[in-house]
């Protein structure tokens, strides 16, 4: 029984991969190139300076923000998604991100666990309702994009003025995406995709188990 279910799931994954193979391979290849270039640049500098305000120096982290941002822009270029859907998704994740993060002088803008998972889960749930289960690639891309932009706006942009109101005794740096691969921007996009993948696998197993029963009842 388990072997039959496994074969059905593998066939479905194979079908979805072949259906979107050109776009998927293109996105994977370009993402790898962007990551390699980013890793090369970060060997010289990990962040890019934006501006100064009072005693604060504002920077963006290449891995924590710049690379996910570029991947989002390229994904939008390759896959067509309704602007109204994107706007709704980004606004929803932005609101969630704003309420689960707080600005601290010593640590920057942080979100305690498990509240740090809420933006990714919000993006995943919206993506599930927006797209059919056969549109797996669109679900992944949509969820990733709204999580990256939503967390950036809700956590960093909206909380940055509050952080800059603090008057430190010495020059301090505020880095957008400063925690790198552990930053809320970066990790929200990854967690949302992992959640969608787990949902797809559970859904496929459920369908594979339930369909034989439906057939036997009809007979």
Describe the structure in brief:
By secondary structure, the protein is mainly alpha-helical. Helix content is about 70%, strand content about 10%. The chain is built from 8 helices and 5 strands.
Oligomer: single chain
The number of helices is 8
Residue ranges: pLDDT <50 for 5 or more in a row?
Answer: 213-219
First-last Cα distance: 20 Å
Mean pLDDT: 76
Q: Tell me the radius of gyration.
A: 20 Å
Q: Hey, roughly how much beta strand do the residues contain? A: 5-15%
| Biggest sheet record | 3 strands, mixed
Structural class: mainly alpha
Structure overview:
With 219 residues, the protein is mainly alpha-helical. The chain has helices at 2-19, 21-42, 62-78, 83-99, 118-130, 136-157, 160-164, 184-218; strands at 47-53, 56-61, 102-104, 108-110, 172-176.
Descriptive keywords:
two-stranded antiparallel ribbon; 68% helix; mainly alpha; disordered C terminus; 219 residues; single chain; three-stranded mixed beta sheet
Detail the topology: elements first, then pairings.
Blueprint: H1 2-19, H2 21-42, E1 47-53, E2 56-61, H3 62-78, H4 83-99, E3 102-104, E4 108-110, H5 118-130, H6 136-157, H7 160-164, E5 172-176, H8 184-218
């Amino acid at each position: 029984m388990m072997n039959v279910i496994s074969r059905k799931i593998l066939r479905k994954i194979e079908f979805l991969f072949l259906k979107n193979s050109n776009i998927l391979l293109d996105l994977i290849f370009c993402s790898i190139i962007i990551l390699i270039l980013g890793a090369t640049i970060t060997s010289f500098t990990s962040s890019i300076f934006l501006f100064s305000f009072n005693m604060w120096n504002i920077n963006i982290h290449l891995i924590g923000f710049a690379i996910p941002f570029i991947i989002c822009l390229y994904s939008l270029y390759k896959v067509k998604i309704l602007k109204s859907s994107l706007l709704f998704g980004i606004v929803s994740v932005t609101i969630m991100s704003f309420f689960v993060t707080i600005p601290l002088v010593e640590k920057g803008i942080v979100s305690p666990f498990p509240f740090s998972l809420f933006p990714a889960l919000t993006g995943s749930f919206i993506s599930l309702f927006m797209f059919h289960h056969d549109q797996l690639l669109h679900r992944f891309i949509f969820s990733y994009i709204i999580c990256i932009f939503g967390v950036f706006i809700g956590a960093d942009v909206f909380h940055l003025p509050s952080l800059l109101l603090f008057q430190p005794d010495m020059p301090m740096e505020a880095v957008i995406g400063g925690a790198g691969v552990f930053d809320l921007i970066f990790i929200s996009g990854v967690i949302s995709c992992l959640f969608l993948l787990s949902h797809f696998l559970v859904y496929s197993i459920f369908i594979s188990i339930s369909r034989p029963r439906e057939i036997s009842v009809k007979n």
